[in-house]
UniProtKB/TrEMBL annotation, chains A, B:
The active site is at D106, E173. Mn(2+) 1 binds at D139, E174, H452. Coiled coil: none annotated. The lineage of its organism: Eukaryota, Fungi, Dikarya, Ascomycota, Saccharomycotina. Binds 2 manganese ions per subunit. This is Cys-Gly metallodipeptidase DUG1. Belongs to the peptidase M20A family. GO terms for cellular component: cytoplasm. SUPFAM superfamilies: Zn-dependent exopeptidases (SSF53187). Its cofactor is Mn(2+). GO terms for molecular function: carboxypeptidase activity; identical protein binding; metal ion binding; metallodipeptidase activity; omega peptidase activity. GO terms for biological process: glutathione catabolic process; proteolysis. It comes from Ascoidea rubescens DSM 1968.
Length: 481, 481
């Protein structure tokens, strides 16, 4: 049977199985696997068991719940176990390529009081508006169920999977993927041996009309500036005007980092950014996006740019610096007349090719130290990196991307846009580096799904067509040279 | 009997009654009358009843517990009653002057876990170190008991009080004196009719060696700058670099308000400050204070000035501007990559003669608006006054101050220093304005008592000598022309 006729049969079976696929997602959504809520940890475990049972029903082999030990501090509940990572294999044919698929089964917190129109943990099937509404519908239970759906369709038809699959589904993604980095390192030559490529379905289309494939992510270096003076918080009536106030120093320094048009004022950073190539420039032209979509997403008319290209380039391929807040200062409502004794300013820089993380940190710290020295202050100041995660850019024309592009065309009738994202998925780099393989980001949901918001949804069509896309991708990837 | 022989007898009786005076303070301290802790409200009521019973035992007339109704929001416990204000009178002789004495019987929160060396609500009598240790010992139960002690000594000796006394003891001072302003207005021509002068004993010596009388307080105008842009908090990965971030605007504006040497950068304020007179200049020279005391109090070497006069003038008679914090920004520990959608910068300006509060507010708002306009931002900005309290300065050579000065000399053997304070006691102005009378601030405790800190203390000698000072003050004030 040709690939095309296999795909035809599979697509038709996927359509037939739609009610049971929705039922599968419905069951998954009903489990309150909020990784950030320690009291709900048993639900995250329940979710792992649910996945394990589904995988076994689908004839997976070597299904494991990988114990990750106790959650490191800070935790409220002591001896809190981390949820296990669910591992499973389908096929072990040395003639076939081996694809690792990753997803997460934990979700963001959700309560109806937040403003949901329905119980967040009861999947609402709204055929009229083409929506599946519920926490995790699009992030990331929908895509994970999508993979299971693909396997079920093959099983039902007795069609062999075109690749060996290794499943890696975690339960702490919304809480920093604790333990996953180490597991990938540990299993690079073990469970994950022979992995040729990695496919992650945990992001979204840029807009709502056109499917995309994602080939780049910005990195993120997070810094803090600690300014301390008095031994304890002081009363501004007694000490105001007589002593050097740490807040005044900190605000002065923070005001020198970035201007309000988004220009980073720390010298030497711009110079590290890779120049725009002609090929890259062309990619922007074809992408469907405009300033109205940015304004709709931000709920305001605060876009710094009006052209599509400027917006996307500043989101994807230029660095940015955001001031997040100040720890130790007064942050409540009302009026408190305190002189905080120690204040910690927080900011982060989104990084892009070819910004070297270490060099960036050196530039930032030197700049802050110089600015503080210029203040000639009696307080003490220290600037430090809290954490960094490198940027990631892949070749959007490699084997895996070509297969995904062909699958998208097959299902949606259009070539996908090739996009990057402004945020980071740190695990992408770990997979790439540790498994020496390429990663493809193949999203299922739309840009307006509201992943971390109230009334999170996945369009029914995206769920079913997305399942087909994953399915076709496997076949095109499997047969690629 | 001459005034001096009366005072001699009274002093000797005060010495005799020392054990029972300490016992009185001990009972007062044992009541956990923390006004800021709603769950302890019954204890604040118990404290009012304790005062009422003591006053009745001392033959007070017209003792009243003035009901102030329900505490206005924000409160956690609904229908929470405000503690009553305790009113009492001693004497009603039209030949005598009428003095209103004010104090508060509520205290700051305290828990042994905060670092106390002993239970904060069990008065420790440490004769060796001359200390009475416990929450409220110096702020303000000690001084309030001091007044009761004075009355008891008179009663014991059968000596008539030299003035008519009106007692006004509140239970919400540490929580903004809720209800007191209105009560003073309501009773100005009622219970408080005929008041000639007011004496408040609720502050401290400047240092630890020399008694002081306080004739001035700075005012406080508290402002907020609201900058808002996006409809909701945004992810800095997705939006960083593309939209105008409210935090960037706010930090820019806050950095223009004050420099890190304490100079207010808003034009027009300096010009309103009253010039230093020769008389005032001389007052500073005699005051016992130096930079080491400021450094000890701040727990650091961050004093902006090295000379006594510079420090005291900047604490007492020049305005200052403190940046307190930002509401709405990230304020926790760790790293959160948020772009806050709405941030509220908080700052206050301590005011002094002859800064006009309304004119100041106009200058501040105009300045902030101009600075925001210069930013040419896409966000919205609004600056507003949250609350103001005027400065207060009295004539340190009026009848009441002269009597207090003479009393201090009599008890302590030295002329008191004439001081101001950098903070504000808003009720001072209300008494002065509503009762058309002069207010004297006559402190009992020392500068190192730690009023709002752990291990709050009142020296035993200050308690007893302070009681004598209040006593002698009454007689010198009573006989003054
Ligand atoms: Zn996700
Ligand atoms: Zn997520
Ligand atoms: Zn007080
Ligand atoms: Zn107090």
């Amino acid at each position: 049977m040709s690939t095309d006729s296999k795909i035809s049969k599979l697509f038709s079976t996927i359509d037939d199985l739609k009610p049971s696929f929705i039922d599968r997602l419905s069951k998954a959504v009903s489990i309150k696997s909020v990784s950030g809520d320690e009291t709900l940890r048993p639900e995250v475990f329940k979710m792992a068991t649910f996945l394990k049972d589904e995988l076994i029903k689908l004839d997976a082999t070597d299904v494991q719940l990988k114990d990750l030990g106790i959650q490191p501090p800070p935790v409220s509940i002591s001896n809190l176990p981390l949820p296990p990572i669910v591992l499973a294999k389908f096929g072990n044919d040395p003639q076939k390529k081996t694809l690792l698929i990753y997803g997460h089964a934990d979700v963001q917190p959700a309560q109806i009081e937040d403003g949901w129109n329905s119980d967040p943990f009861t999947l609402v099937v709204d055929e009229e508006n083409d929506k599946l509404i519920g926490r995790g519908s699009t992030d990331d239970k929908g895509p994970v169920m999508g993979w299971l759906n693909v396997i079920e369709a093959h099983k039902k038809l007795g069609i062999a999977l075109p690749v060996n699959l290794i499943c890696c589904f975690e339960g702490m993604e919304e809480s920093g993927s604790l333990g996953l980095d180490q597991l990938i390192k540990d299993e690079a030559k073990g469970y994950f041996k022979n992995t040729n490529d990695v496919c992650i379905s945990d992001n979204y289309w840029l807009g709502t009309k056109k499917p995309v494939l994602t080939y780049g992510l910005r990195g993120c270096n997070y810094y803090q500036i600690i300014v301390k003076g008095p031994g304890a918080d002081l009363h501004s009536g007694i000490f105001g005007g007589c002593i050097a106030e740490p807040m005044t120093d900190l605000i002065q320094i923070m005001s020198t980092l970035v201007d309000n048009k988004g220009n980073i004022l720390i010298p030497g950073i711009k110079e590290m950014v890779a120049p725009v190539t002609e090929t890259e420039e062309k990619l922007y032209e074809e992408i469907e996006f405009d300033v109205d979509e940015l304004n709709a997403a931000s709920g305001s008319k605060t876009s710094l740019f009006s052209s599509k290209k400027d917006i996307l380039m500043h989101r994807w391929r230029y660095p940015s610096l955001s001031l997040h807040g100040i720890e130790g200062a007064f942050s409540g409502s009302g009026a408190k007349t305190v002189i905080p004794s120690k204040v910690i300013g927080k900011f982060s820089i989104r990084t892009v090719p070819n910004i070297d993380s270490n060099k960036l940190t050196k530039l930032v710290i030197e700049f802050v130290n110089r600015k503080f020295k210029e203040l000639n202050s009696l307080n003490e100041c220290k600037c430090e990196l809290i954490h960094d995660g490198d940027y990631w850019v892949s070749d959007p024309f490699n084997k895996s991307f070509r297969a995904a592009s062909k699958a998208t065309k097959k299902v949606w009738g259009v070539e996908p846009d090739f996009t990057r994202e402004g945020g980071s998925i740190p695990i992408t780099l770990t997979f790439e580096n540790e498994l020496k393989s390429n990663v493809l980001l193949l999203p299922m949901g739309k840009g307006d799904d509201g992943a971390h918001s109230i009334n999170e949804k996945l369009n029914i069509s995206n769920y079913i067509q997305g399942t087909k896309t994953l399915c076709a991708y496997l076949h095109y990837y499997g047969e690629s040279e």
